[in-house]
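In the lab's daily routine, each protein ends up as an entry in a very long ledger. A line of letters takes care of the sequence, but it says nothing directly about the fold. The fold becomes a row of whole numbers, each drawn from a learned catalogue of backbone shapes. The protein below has been through that process, and both of its lines are reproduced in full:
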Amino acid sequence: MASPAGETAAVVEGGDGQQQRQAGGFGQTITGIIRIAVFCYFASKFFSPKQKPADPSKPTHLMSNLFQRGEPIDMWFYLSEHEKFNDFGNEGARIWHETNIPYAVWKPESTRTLSMTYYPSEALKNNGSLYAHVFFARSGYPIDPSDPEYQPLNCFGRTHPVATYLPKRKADKKKSLLGNPKDSDESHVEVEEVDGKDSDLKDEGPVEWVSYWKPNVTINLVDDFTRYPQHGVPPNIYPYLLVEPSTINYYPTVFFNEFWLLRDKLILINETVSELPLNLEVSPISMTKWQLFQQIDQSFQIHRSYGSMLDGESDELKRVFLEGNPYLLGVTMFVSMLHSVFDFLAFKNDIQFWNKNKSMEGLSAKSVVLNFICQFIIFLYLLDNDTSWMILASSGVGVCIEFWKIGKAMRIEVDRSGMIPRLRFHDRESYASNKTKEYDDIAIKFLSYVLLLLVVGFSIYSLAYERHKSWYSWILSSLTSCVYMFGFIMMCPQLFINYKLKSVAHLPWRQMTYKFLNTIIDDLFAFVIKMPMLHRLSVFRDDVIFLIYLYQRWVYPVDKTRVNEFGFGGEDESVDTKKISDQEDDKKTN
């Protein structure tokens, strides 16, 4: 069945992976949403279509609300499989009726609710449509146009779909590369699309759409008594404004509030469904709150169009506000902003350190190469899993920076002797002429044994018990998982070099301090975000490494004769300072 316009999202189930990604980018997402919402607000104010200059001979007409505040109104709620409705005498279609609802007044009687069970028809079970038709009228007035007492100025209505259409779940084409028969049977089970698109498989053939049931229908009457110029209605309000043609005034705005209706709450409609829950509510909503919901939804759409947010992530963000502690949420937002600041400062000082560094004495050059390999593996993994272009760009920039560091840590030459030019890497003299290279080789030698055992063991486990698209995907996923789990081991060679040299003066301590602060923030997220206990414990592994660094800084005294990260020694600086002071004394004497 063809899909309705705009209904392209998929039902998403939040998992541990989404919760972990949410920990890293929650603060950035909140900041981006607020920034875009404010931008859209001012853009609608300053860049809305300009009004034509008013003709002095013709007075400007200001449209006003046809209803008064506190005026009692009646409501009728009908369900029909047709988008157009005029069968007002059908008692079976009328689901709900309320009387004397005070309009735009915040009182207990202004909110009405109803919970019921709906029994779907055979047509609805087979991808049929269902619409909610809501009508309002002044108390005592009919809504049926065939009634003799019917008056158009006293009633209004809106239509809203109760069944929406989403892409059908795709079959999981991952398979056991070893040919496990049980796993082959599981590969035919339908799996749910994540974030509105298949994250593992390319689209093949036409997309099949199925209907989903909305269990909650919230009808809000907007508290809006603004007098709008006839040709100057704000563009964000104009689509919702229902104008009465004879008086050129508008009816109360009806808003079907689906802001808090998460997609994992939708119910799939098929032949096996015999009954469906339906929770109805009619209540007032302020103009500010209504506009806020619109601006946030618009910011979500802008983020999705730019590729910085996937469809499921907006639901996960709303879930945090629904299920999270508000105080804990505020602390998390503040700490997330600190995390972003420390990330930027660590990145800036890292670039400054390697840009000004003139000596590799005491630094592990092979760790720089290993970091480049790890970043490149992660980039290939993201590329294989159809990640958004913004994350790919960020990872790609990280790969380029790590390669640039190799050029600072080693000499790179282009060998053009063969048919294909090749890159040759040579150790710098400050690295090879002292004990640094010897200690680095020893550390990498033993580290390679440990890493080899871990990588081989995890790869065999993944091959035996997990499903993959291809052998290439298995290699990438195994290497990437090892990088995430055992990446902290890459810092161990530097610890060994520090231990042998009995010095830590050559380290970029400012950058490491910012990284250590970010590690503490990650520890906080480990308690805020729901995750398995083993993953929660693994967050603290970086703390152990940094604590060892701090212990080494405390144990090994500062050697002022050693060259620092800028290529200068402490004694040289004191000699230069003494020469300058002597020259100044001579000038004073003369």
About this structure: The longest helix spans residues 16-46. The chain has a mean pLDDT of 75. The two ends are 98 Å apart (CA to CA).
